[in-house]
Amino acid sequence: MHMKKVSVAALLLTALFAGVVMAQRRVGGVRMKSETFDRDPQWDGHNNRPSDRNDQPVQVRQDFGFSGTSHAGGDRGEIGGFIQAAGEPAFYGKVIEPKTLKDPIRASGTFTIADGDTQLLLGFFNAETTNEWRTPNTVSIRINGRGDHFYAYVEYCTSKWRAGGDTQPFAFMKKSGDGKDPTGLPSGGNKYQWSLTYNPTANNGNGSVTAIIGDYTAVGDLDPRHKRDGAIFNRFGLMNVMKSAGDGTEIYLDNLTINGEKETFDRDPKWDQKNNRRTYQTNNVRPRFDFGYSPTNFAGGKGKGELGGQIFRGDIRYPDSMAYYADEIGPLTLDKPFAASGKVVMLRGVTDSTTMFGFFNAEQSMRTNPSQNDAVPESMMGINIEGPSSEGFLFYPVYRTEGGAGRPAPRSPEIPYIFPDAEVREWKFLYNPAAAGGKGRISISLDGRVTSLDLMEGEKSSGTRFDRFGIITPWIDGAGQTVYFDDLTYTVSQ
Asked: What per-residue string of b and e applies to 197-233 under the rule 16 or more CB within 10 Å gives b?
């Protein structure tokens, strides 16, 4: 069956949150719709598919590995080459005995980087979990080439996609003339001694990462929760930053010592490799929106067909940089309850990305304005999938009334986590206007884990109206996710 419309009383609304939200038992006239996407529902779409403006594939060139050259300061023979930032993983790494966050690890050597722009990782990683950035199971130095100089960052990411390190460019980099902004270190073939060390007993036993380049040192202490997440490292080497297609440049390494073993590169070491000698076209280009109805079945619905795809953050300053795909509903108001439920799966998530899903207003939520102060669209209520990177990816309630400020849920231990691990999860959403002393409350659950968000005093009477249900991009731009939804049930009228 393609679509099914049923009238429900309060019992169905509360059944979505059985045993959790029981205040609303009688809600007359509420109508729900079920959508299984076994065929294209022909929902309303705005900029959600590639246009002539942004449907321009980008060429990616990865050309790194063993090289018979001597750029990095040793005898002939080294590793390196041209590395380009891209959504698709590429690495060249030595297979090492697996290490965890309970083990010390260390690498050192020399490197040189050419002028140009790039983003790459130098360090320890796991060959089975290279899918996005921040990359799980990594301890690394991130190098960002910027023309005739480069910045570097010490960073780590656990098995649960929770990341940390030093968020300033090595915080120790050279200062500009006024002593404020870092200017980076010269690239252009300059040679640098470097080392990367993880000490599991430092930082009161929570672990700490220390990176050195030349005369500069940076330290990234692990959050105790991150140490408990754990991580497994089975490779050391070079890897591209996996965001979306970007620029690239050359880097070379030599005179390496990895966990006490020296690498001279007087011959090809035949390290493990993936996509490191490849030139191809990619459509993973920011912000190429590509979401809506899909004939796939990632979200585990009853049959083929679902909602989702490649979802970048939007930018409310530019009409072509906002997008949505949604069913026409309502209008719904904050005076009466409404609800939704379904399945969700996250295949890929990048730092500084968001998937926003729920009830919104097609006009007010897309109103172009110069504001970059609030990521939440006006007249929106639903669910966010996003960071911060120190937490990985959270699944939490969010709303903004007409003319009000965005209100994501405050950070709390109750907020559910969602991982880009292709696991299908069940979710539920309920807005209850009688809760929180009559102010109104949003409650959501993910696989039974529940969190809620109360409306501010007086916001229920703001006159906010919702006339769409689906995916909408945030107002502040950023990176992308790949997320799918299926087997949806949602309120269409009150």
From this structure: bbebebbeebbbbbbbbeebebbbbbbeebbebebbb
What's the pTM? 0.92
Q: For 161-177, what is each residue's pLDDT tens digit?
A: 999 987 666 654 555 45
389-409 burial, b if ≥16 CB within 10 A, otherwise e? bebbbbbbbbbbbeebebbbb
- The residues with which 106 forms a beta bridge, in sequence order, are 197
The string of pLDDT tens digits covering residues 58-70 is 999 999 999 999 9
442 close to 415: Cβ distance less than 8 angstroms: no
Q: Identify whether the C-beta of residue 136 lies closer than 8 Å to the C-beta of residue 161.
A: yes
Could you tell me which of 176, 184, 170, 101 has the C-alpha nearest to residue 138? 101
- The pLDDT of 247-256, averaged and rounded, is 97
CA dihedral 174, 180, 181, 182 (to 10 degrees): 10
Q: Amino acid identity, residue 263?
A: E
pLDDT at 75: 86
Longest dimension (CA), the chain: 81
Backbone angles phi, psi at 229, to 5 degrees: -60, -40
